[in-house]
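Q: Hi! First time doing this. I have a protein sequence and I read that you can turn it into a structure. Is that right? Here it is:
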Amino acid sequence: MSTEFILKEISKTELADCVDVIKLSFETVELPIEDYSTLDTRRLIFESDNGNVMFGLFDDEKQIGFAELDKREN
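A: Yes, that's right. Below is the predicted 3D structure, encoded as C-alpha cells:
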C-alpha cells in the first residue's frame, strides 16, 4: 500500500499546529542551530507577515513536516 503525501501552503489560522511539528523535528538534532524550544505561534505569524511562505507536509490529515521560504534574502 503506497502512502500519498500532500504538500500545501499553510494559512495563518493553521500556524499554531506547525509549532509542535517544528519543535518535535529539532528534539534530536545536535547541530549548532537556532534554539526552537521557545518558538511560538507569534513568531510564525511575524514571519508570515514579513512575506515568508510556509508549507506543511501531510500524511492523510496529519501534519508531519514543515518548510518555510524566507523571501527577505531573495
